[in-house]
Design a protein that fits this description.
The chain has 3 domains: 205 residues, P-loop containing nucleotide triphosphate hydrolases (Rossmann fold, 3-Layer(aba) Sandwich); 64 residues, lambda repressor-like DNA-binding domains (434 Repressor (Amino-terminal Domain)), CATH 1.10.260; 90 residues, Sandwich (Jelly Rolls). It is an alpha/beta fold and 392 residues long. It is 30% helix and 26% strand. It has 12 helices and 18 strands. The strands form 3 sheets. Strands 3-2-4-5-1-6-7-8-9 form a 9-stranded mixed sheet, with helices on both faces.
Length: 392
């Protein structure tokens, strides 16, 4: 369920109801990159989240080109981080320091960044990519929500891959369609979702796109990721370039035989083809903010039936203890990230220091005890035996 920041929420709003439902909101620390053909395609989505700024504990706009007065007129109530040429924040390092100062000690902030195109023009593409590569993890660690705009035609494939590989969410927008290209920590099926949108009073209103539109967005996303022209993709599919063009615009579909043949030539599954991208090879689970996890209680982080692995965070107050809430059959691993933790087993009670790990393969963990005078942090990882029931 989506709540807002003022109520100590678990997730943050995007300002667009249908997008919130698809993503179940944003996890605190998410960086959202809008990948658009035109910078103007991003403005309605910036306006939508800005209209919900009161749901955050603070908001700021990072400007490289806009006059501060124009920013405050467009985004009332926002602080302005002024990085225009000639200012003290015009270079990457001072700007990054200013962004950090804005967020440190003030959780659940909202930041809107001027287009990455402006950074590339001023600093060069390599430096702009390096700025994002440092800024994105920084904001994740600080628990802020940040929005960035990437203009597809103005950036090299290498820079785009770098940015899209680091960020938590990528939304392809343009031509009245939005596709969720990346959304870390969401259930299967979220990535690849496609919506049509119209503007009402300057704000986007989304609705699920029909099958032909979803296929079109997937084909376009995959073709862009593989750096193929429509003619090249058409040759691989055994159809005309016009057929690919019409399919990408959602005006016609492609036969199942054509899609199966194309998937085979691209060496991907049909599911990957219809999602518009290749599976990244990892599955990530996010929480609203792990720093706020309840002490002395194992908190589920990841439960992946396909891999047979589950991971829990165990945060122990000084002198505190915790017990599993269910019995487990299978191998268990405990690793200590900080503190001095005693592991309670049927066969003994070993003590682990920071950086140490234990595997229990005969009897499960019966509990954990913090022997130190500071908070301790451990991870409990379970490997399920085939056919093992899920915890109840």
């Amino acid at each position: 369920m989506l709540h807002n920041a003022a109520n100590g929420s678990s997730t943050a709003t995007t300002g667009v109801a249908e997008l919130d439902r698809a993503l179940n909101g944003l996890y605190w620390g998410d960086n959202v990159v809008f990948d658009a053909e035109l910078a103007a395609d991003v403005e309605p989505f910036y306006a939508a989240v800005a209209a919900q700024a009161r749901a955050y504990e603070g908001a700021a706009f990072v400007t490289l080109t806009r006059e501060p007065s124009a920013v405050t007129a467009a985004f009332p109530g926002f602080d302005v981080i002024d990085a225009r040429e000639g200012t003290a924040l015009a270079q990457p390092r001072p700007l990054l320091d200013a962004v950090a100062r804005h967020c440190v000690g003030k959780p659940r902030q909202l930041l809107l960044f001027d287009s990455l195109e402006h950074m590339s023009r001023r600093w060069g593409r390599e430096t702009a990519g390096a700025f994002f590569a440092r800024g994105c993890p920084l904001l994740l660690g600080l628990g802020a929500i940040a929005y960035w705009a990437l203009t597809a035609a103005r950036h090299t494939p290498v820079l785009r891959r770098q940015i899209e590989g680091i960020t938590q969410c990528v939304l392809d927008v343009g031509d009245g369609r939005l596709r969720i290209a990346k959304a870390e920590g969401r259930p299967p099926g979220v990535e690849g979702s496609v919506f049509r949108y119209e503007l009402e009073d300057g704000l986007p209103v989304l609705e699920a796109a029909p099958a032909a539109a979803r296929l079109g967005a997937a084909l376009r996303g995959l073709r862009t990721a593989r750096h193929l022209s429509q003619a090249e993709l058409a040759r691989m599919a055994g159809v005309s370039a016009s057929a690919i063009s019409q399919a990408e615009r959602g005006r016609r579909g492609l036969s199942l035989e054509t899609l199966l043949d194309l998937a085979g030539r691209l060496n991907i599954s049909l599911d990957e083809l219809l999602r518009g991208d290749v599976a990244p090879g990892y599955r990530l689970a996010r929480r609203d903010d792990p720093r706020h996890a309840e002490s002395n209680r194992p908190v589920p982080l990841l439960d992946d039936p396909r891999a047979g692995l589950r991971a829990y965070l165990v945060r122990l107050s000084p002198g505190g203890s915790a017990e599993p809430e269910f019995a487990h059959k299978g191998v268990e691993l405990v690793t200590v990230a900080s503190g001095l933790v005693q592991i309670l087993l049927a066969s003994g009670s070993p003590v682990l220091r920071q950086g140490e790990a234990l595997i229990a393969d005969r009897s499960g963990v019966a509990g954990w005890r913090n022997l130190g005078d500071r908070e301790a942090l451990a991870f409990w990882i379970l490997h399920d035996e085939p056919g093992s029931p899920a915890p109840g």
